[in-house]
Amino acid sequence: MFDYTVETTSGIEEAIEKLKTSLMDEKFGVLWEFDIKAKLQEKGLEFDEPYKVLEVCNPQEAKRVLDKNKLVGYFLPCKIVVYKDSGKTKIGMPKPTSLIQNVNDDELNSMALDIEKRLIAAIEQSL
């Protein structure tokens, strides 16, 4: 699976607030919160389920992977999505290890695994 996705009993906004707090514990910050539902509705398109994309970053990790290979910037910042699906709140992300495989570098694979574990820990802590 290219993703890590879990369900939470929290609502969207509560899940996002808990997630922001747990991300800080792992030294990640939220750069931007994109409300896809609002943007689609603004453009006249019907989309009724809440769907928010958080772009998250740890500056030290970003510098470390970019120093190794500039192409990794194509995957930055990391994305975590909080959304409703069939009435359930879900939190998910593409796995950094899945994305980084495209670069074919063992050292970067190791870095991506570390980042992935920390992001998963933040998501699980927010549940």
Task: Reconstruct the topology from this structure.
Layout: E1 3-8, H1 12-25, E2 29-35, H2 36-42, E3 51-57, H3 59-68, E4 78-85, E5 88-94, H4 96-100, H5 106-126
Antiparallel strand pairs: 1-5, 2-3, 3-4, 4-5
Helix pairs in contact: 1-5
Explained architecture:
It is a single chain. The protein has a single domain, classed as TATA-Binding Protein. Helices cover 45% and strands 28% of the residues. Strands 1-5-4-3-2 form a 5-stranded antiparallel β-sheet. Strand 4 and strand 5 form a beta hairpin.
Classify the oligomer: single chain
Largest sheet, strands/sense/barrel: 5 strands, antiparallel
CATH topology category name:
TATA-Binding Protein
The backbone outline, from C-alpha atoms, is globular
